[in-house]
Amino acid sequence: MQQILVYGDSLSWGIVPGTRERLPFGQRWPGALEGLLAAQGTAARVIEDCLNGRRTVWDDPFKPGRNGLQGLAQRIEICSPLALVVLMLGTNDFQSSHANTAWHSAQGLGALLQAIRQAPIEPGMPQPPVLVVAPPPLGTPCGAAAEKFAGGDVRCLGLAAAQQAVARQHGCAFFDAGTVVQASRTDGVHLDADQHARLAQALAPVVAGLLAARG
To answer: What is the pTM of this model?
Structure first.
């Protein structure tokens, strides 16, 4: 059975918009993806490493451990051998505690891709390919997310294109989640359950193709 690591934030962790609750595994897009792959005859285990508030390379001034670069290489080592890494980060780079633009966030993504490539995996184990999934643009932050993401809906503009350029530079596959899903109207940040299902449906043939290409 092939192993896929999903490295993400609350959009992949499956937080229910407007709450602190979590969708069940089968309703979160990583879990739904695993089920869809199995249904089409692709035996794959999807490993979730998704942390609420995770940035690409920045620290959260209020909560420790949200810098996505810290410990990433060791996570690759822990989960090896991996057939694929799916990297979906960037949303939290636009929290109001940062002044980042899409360009800054994409450079953070580049640092993560470099860390994955340099991870100290055991000799003879394959270096996993990476699928970069650009998160959908922020909507209008509201409710509990209003102050936390104030201005983020403007500063995140152009993120998908910037991430695609960085993915291309590193020889990685790319998918723009914003072409199939959108942030919930409940908070302007997270994904409703039906959007998780849509994202899994869109990613299933992409992931299956990448796995098949590895033989």
So the answer is: 0.98
CA distance 3 to 37: 12
User: Nearest Cα to 42, choosing from 212, 213, 214?
Assistant: 212
Q: What are phi and psi of 175, to 5 degrees?
A: -140, 135
Q: What is the pLDDT of residues 7-23, one digit of tens each?
A: 999 999 999 999 999 99
- Find the domain containing 166 and state its range: 2-213
Amino acid identity of residue 90, one-letter, is G
**Closest by Cα among 49, 62, 117, 121 to 88:** 49
What is the domain-level CATH number for residue 93?
Answer: 3.40.50.1110
Q: What is the count of structural domains for the chain?
A: 1
Q: For residues 92 and 76, give the distance between their C-alpha atoms in angstroms, rounded to a whole number.
A: 22
Where helices occur in 118-189 by DSSP H, the ranges are 145-148, 152-155, 159-169
Q: In this structure, what are the phi and psi dihedrals at residue 4, rounded to the nearest 5 degrees? A: -120, 125
Contact 87, 109 (CB under 8 A): yes
Half-sphere exposure (Cβ direction) of 212: Cα atoms closer than 13 Å: 10
In sequence order, what DSSP letters do the residues of 16-61 get, joined into one string?
PTTSS-B--TTTSHHHHHHHHHHHTT--EEEEEEE-TT-BSS---S
Q: Which residue has the tokens 């991870």?
A: 119
Spatial contact of 67 and 57, defined as CB atoms under 8 Å apart: yes
pLDDT tens per residue, range 187-209: 999 999 999 999 999 999 999 99
